[in-house]
């Protein structure tokens, strides 16, 4: 949520004075009459200086308008479900595609893009320093030097850090691992979903694989190489496979 808002603010060149949210977990949760904000979002809102509130479920026009906008964007930009290799590059194109959907306003007769340009004059300016959308956590690396954070996702660090505590910075699209001294050790693309993932470099498996060729079929090395090379190596005998 915070990463998306940051990119939108930078794209439009300003910060709205007030934002109305549906019950978004990235912002917080409504509990009875009170709202508990997420720690990262509270810091984000304070940094950019905008007011915010949640939709009033008893006010049909307010909650209904937010849900209508979400449905419009979903049906026009996310159907069919897009396939992408890079979330960052997809997001860069997404904001421009969203603006291209502007149409004449049903009541005012002007284009929505022109109306937005006029409204943007009322926005607050961007702060001098951008907000670093990162949540930090302390983790202990396992005996292989990997850390498991945010579900069943394992990220490689450095073998020398095996069994030691490290600092993990979780961003929306990237994960950075630091030694306790603050030195950056490595960065990985952040993984999502309930399925286990492992960012280990397949090349690190090569020495062990040459001694245990029976593991070839299920190895990460086989999965990582090009299709034509994989087909060629699958047809080799054990001796030739080890040499290859």
Average pLDDT works out at 87
Write down the secondary-structure element order.
Answer: HEEEHEHHHEEEEEEEHHHH
Strand content: 15-25%
* Count of DSSP strands: 11
Spans of at least 5 consecutive residues whose pLDDT stays below 50 are none
What features would you describe in this structure?
The structure is a single chain. Helices cover 35% and strands 20% of the residues. The chain has helices spanning 2-12, 39-48, 60-77, 87-99, 112-119, 206-211, 220-224, 227-234, 238-243; strands at 18-21, 28-31, 34-37, 51-54, 135-140, 146-149, 153-156, 165-170, 174-178, 184-189, 197-198. A 4-stranded antiparallel beta sheet has the order 5-8-9-10, with no helix packed on it. A 3-stranded mixed beta sheet has the order 6-7-11, with no helix packed on it. The longest helix has 18 residues, at 60-77. The two termini are 47 Å apart. The mean pLDDT is 87.
Quick structural overview:
The strands form four sheets. A four-stranded antiparallel beta sheet has the order 5-8-9-10, with no helix packed on it. It has a three-stranded mixed beta sheet with strand order 6-7-11, with no helix packed on it. The model has no long low-confidence stretch (mean pLDDT 87). The radius of gyration is 24 Å and the shape is elongated.
Give the secondary structure arrangement, pairings included:
Blueprint: H1 2-12, E1 18-21, E2 28-31, E3 34-37, H2 39-48, E4 51-54, H3 60-77, H4 87-99, H5 112-119, E5 135-140, E6 146-149, E7 153-156, E8 165-170, E9 174-178, E10 184-189, E11 197-198, H6 206-211, H7 220-224, H8 227-234, H9 238-243
Parallel strand pairs: 1-4, 7-11
Antiparallel strand pairs: 2-3, 5-8, 6-7, 8-9, 9-10
């Amino acid at each position: 949520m915070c990463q998306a808002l940051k990119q939108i603010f930078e794209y439009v060149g300003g910060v709205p004075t007030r934002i109305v949210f549906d019950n978004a977990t990235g912002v917080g949760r409504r509990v009875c009459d009170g709202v508990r904000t997420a720690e990262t979002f509270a810091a984000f809102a304070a940094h950019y200086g905008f007011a915010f509130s949640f939709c009033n479920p008893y006010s049909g026009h307010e909650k209904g308008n937010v849900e209508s906008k979400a449905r419009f964007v979903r049906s026009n930009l996310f159907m069919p479900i897009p396939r992408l290799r890079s979330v960052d590059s997809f997001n860069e194109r997404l904001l421009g595609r969203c603006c291209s959907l502007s149409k004449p306003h049903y009541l005012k007769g002007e284009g929505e893009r022109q109306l937005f340009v006029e409204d943007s004059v009322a926005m607050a300016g961007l702060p001098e320093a951008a907000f670093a959308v990162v949540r930090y956590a302390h983790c202990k690396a396992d005996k292989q030097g990997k850390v498991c954070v945010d579900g069943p996702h394992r990220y490689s660090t450095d073998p020398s850090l095996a069994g030691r505590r490290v600092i993990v910075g979780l961003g929306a699209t990237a994960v950075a691992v630091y030694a306790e001294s603050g030195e950056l050790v490595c960065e990985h693309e952040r993984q999502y979903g309930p399925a286990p993932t492992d960012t280990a470099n397949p090349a690190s498996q090569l020495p062990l694989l040459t001694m245990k060729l029976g593991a070839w079929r299920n190895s990460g090395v086989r999965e990582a190489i090009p299709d034509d090379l994989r087909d060629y190596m699958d047809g080799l005998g054990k001796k030739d496979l080890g040499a290859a």
